[in-house]
Amino acid sequence: MASSPLTVPAPARPGRPARVVALVSGSGTNLQALLDAIAEQGAAAYGAEIVAVGADRDGIAGLERAERAGLPVYVCRVKDHADRAAWDLALTEATAAYEPDLVVSAGFMKILGKEFLARFGGRTVNTHPALLPSFPGAHGVRDALAYGAKVTGCTVHFVDDGVDTGPVIAQGVVEVRDEDDESALHERIKEVERSLLVDVVGRLARNGYRTEGRKVVIP
């Protein structure tokens, strides 16, 4: 069933960029792309600033990138909570403390639960290394190669309660070459993915957006 239209204006903070919390699980290259764009353009011109970085585990490069940038960080590990519901609630509360206008899953490898989506649904952005709805899940690059796809790419989408099923915001196309293995193809996809994510987050922050069923419209 199509959802009712949802309009999300640009943040009502005159003269201030949108507040973004980024979630990471690994190397943080998407996070770094956002940090670099904001540093190069300035937060006011880009339209957003990263106010905190959260993670589901310690000792990862993504957190080191955040700390080098002088950003506050927080870690919510699943094993520190009684169950996934308790973890989801803790992650929600830790994220909410920074009052984000947008949440960006920048390589965050945990499925967000109902508490998180109740609070941040419709404004949590994720990337996926395939052209959704084709090849969802953890092995999008491998699956595209195995299927014999001639083109693949990446998708920036909003997170919902499914696995890579949320409304598509933007997509980038990458050609599959005959000599490609999973690693080579994934590296080329990541290059497009980083650029696309930077563009999308900036436009969402500057312009606001609305969703009409599965269609996302950025003015």
From TrEMBL:
The active site is at residue 128. Its EC number is 2.1.2.2. It is an enzyme of class 2 (transferase). The record marks 164 as: Raises pKa of active site His. Keywords: Purine biosynthesis, Transferase. Residues 19-201 form the Formyl transferase N-terminal domain. The keyword Transport does not apply. It catalyses: N(1)-(5-phospho-beta-D-ribosyl)glycinamide + (6R)-10-formyltetrahydrofolate = N(2)-formyl-N(1)-(5-phospho-beta-D-ribosyl)glycinamide + (6S)-5,6,7,8-tetrahydrofolate + H(+). (6R)-10-formyltetrahydrofolate binds at residues 84, 109-112, 126. The keyword Transferase applies. This is Phosphoribosylglycinamide formyltransferase. The lineage of its organism: Bacteria, Bacillati, Actinomycetota, Actinomycetes, Kitasatosporales.
